[in-house]
Amino acid sequence: MSRINELKKQNPAFDKSVLDYIQIILSDFKPKYYELFLNLIKNKISNQRFSYEEFKEDLISYGIPLDIIEKMSYQELLFFTRFVGSFIERDDYKLIREFAEYNERNLIEENDITKIKSFEQLNNIVSLVEIKSWNKELESQSIVLLDNDQTGWFLIKPLTYEASKKYGSATKWCTTNKNNPEYFYKYYKGVLIYCINRKSGKKVAMHCHLHDMEVSFWNSEDTRIDSIFSGLDEECIDIIKREIILGKSNYDLVPDELKSLENEYQYEDELIPLELPMADRPTAAIRIINETIPQNYEYVADEIVQNREISITMTDIFPDWIMNQS
Questions:
Q1: Is the pTM of this model over 0.85?
Q2: Backbone angles phi, psi at 208, to 5 degrees
Q3: Residue 180: what pLDDT?
């Protein structure tokens, strides 16, 4: 028995055809009515003006090979397109193909397929392969905040769209979308940090919108999560806090020579509203400082922040406290 036949036997719910479903919904009638209903559906489909070319283009955009698509009948193409569009996300399809390709090349160490239970787990496995292939090429297009060999945590601020795609590969982050750079240019107007674990392959993105100081964390599935469920250790969280208080967006840190590389991607209608003016940042920053610094330092923070109309760092405010945390 072939493996596909074994799977059909083990998963009968996934081995049903349109005829099987017709039989289910007309189970209290004679089989001749199954044929009637099937013929009616076939005629209805043939009389509706579905676009064959649109179906083809949609499937091709997923990455389905053209030679496979062209072998399908009109009815097969219709049902296949509906199935793919309803149940298969583009990124999931891409991810499982990447896993299969890496596995066939013997690049995946933990390759017991039966132990993989989620797409997030699959993301981490594929991510590990890609992390090992990193080179120094894009380091100049990013700012490394942490590279800890012991914990495996690697924190980076991508400064270009290319760097964002590279370090955010094997995730569903909108900032890594290969067909739409708009999201990256939206988020890099704030503080955008990619947290990547070289040992586990885990990836977490953090973004702080400097206009209202809203902080958000996102797992590799691009689902927003609370920081306490991010898996980031204290060292990572401390670095993120310092970057937020520093208040320098990724865009602020892009050298002029790199900005010219981005012109091909950016359009005026993608420009993001101005960040919180520097003079107004103290009011927002004070809330973060008071939430993260021990209470006995609160009055110090208030006085320093209110009298400085520039961005500040944790070290600026509490050099002795920072030293004690390291």
A1: no
A2: -125, 120
A3: 80
